[in-house]
Amino acid sequence: MPDYLVRATAGEGQILAIATQTTGLVQAAKELHNTSPTATAALGRVLTGAAMMAATLKEGQGITVRILGNGPLGSIVAVARPGEVKGYVMEPGVDLPLKSDGKLDVGGAVGRGTLYVAKDLGLKEPYSGSVPLVSGEIGEDLAYYFTASEQKPSAVGLGVLLEPGGKVGAAGGYLLQLLPGAAEEIAVSLEKNIQAAGPVSSLILQEHTPEDILALLLKGFSLKVHERQPIKYNCGCSRERLKGILLALGPAELQKLLEEQGGAEAKCAFCSRVYRFSGEEVAELLATVPRRKQEGY
User: Fold this and answer.
1) Integer Cα distance of 142 and 42 in angstroms
2) The domain that contains 262 carries what CATH number?
């Protein structure tokens, strides 16, 4: 089944509901970054969460989610726009023993730290917020962010299930938010439905669609689907973008690369693609730096 996302409202407009399947894009991320099982689960959850958050934005807007924990995985970053997401984990090879319940120890690998969110809404400055990590399991952390930073009581479910060989067997998530004016008793009903539904990755493994998942989570509420949107892992890097990163190093660093290495090599953090620039290309870049500064870039 192709990856896609469903955005809906329920309870006569009192609940915002999003559900998604992300099995393919999490598998793509695993292959690009050669992640261990624990790192695959952690990165997959962040990618899925960011993709759902981006579904609330307009075309051309974007969001960056950054998890900075003190665990062995280091930082985890996801950048999303409506319909696409990309990301990376600082230490993709880190793996931990399974927990006593047989599940991957994502919380232990992430550790304690901070969740940062930056939204590019097309304004002069991006909206940004941050909260302490409450568990490192990602779903609980995002739910706490929505409640504490955006004052939107929320429930977030994220899951990545791996097959014995390490392939991503199922991945996806859901986001439920109480909208302004929602009745207090709605939260109680939603909590019961969430408990009855079980883990979202298990539902996807059982071939439940995002629509099926919303139907379970919103049992007893009227449901109105507003959008079905394909989503994919998309880096979008290019030689031109990587040239811009090299230029940002400044003339001193470019000169050093030219003298010591006779060129430059730049690796995209989001897809691991390596771009090589010859000595002539670096010299050309170096020659543009003073002119760019004079022109006020």
Assistant:
1) 13
2) 3.90.1280.10
CATH of residue 156's domain is 3.55.30.10
Task: State the alpha helices, DSSP H only, in 34-129.
Answer: 37-54, 106-110
Q: Do 162 and 26 belong to one domain? A: yes
Given a cut of 80, whether residue 296 has pLDDT beyond it is: no
Query: For 65-177, where are the alpha helices, taking DSSP H only?
Result: 106-110, 139-149
Report d(CA 193, CA 59) in Å as an integer: 32
- Clarify whether residues 99 and 113 are in a common domain: yes
Which of 113-117, 188-192, 217-221, 276-280 is predicted with the least confidence, judged by mean pLDDT? 276-280
Q: How much helix, strand and coil, in percent to the nearest 5, is found in the chain?
A: 35, 30, 35
Six-digit token string for 136: 């490192």
Mean pLDDT along residues 243-270: 86
| Domain termination site, one of 233, 248, 263 | 233
> Are 119 and 170 contained in the same domain?
yes
pLDDT tens per residue, range 136-184: 999 999 999 999 999 999 999 999 999 998 899 999 999 999 998 888 8
pTM recorded for the entire structure: 0.91
The SS3 assignment for 102 reads: coil
How many alpha carbons fall within 13 Å on the CB side of residue 152?
18
For residues 107 and 145, state if they share a domain. yes
For the chain, what is the mean pLDDT? 92
Q: Give me the residue label for tokens 């504490």.
A: 148
Q: Please give the pLDDT value at position 254.
A: 87
DSSP characters over 215-228: HHHTTTS-EEEEEE
Say how many domains are in the chain. 2
Range of the domain at 163: 4-233
Distance CA(176)–CA(194), nearest Å, equals 10
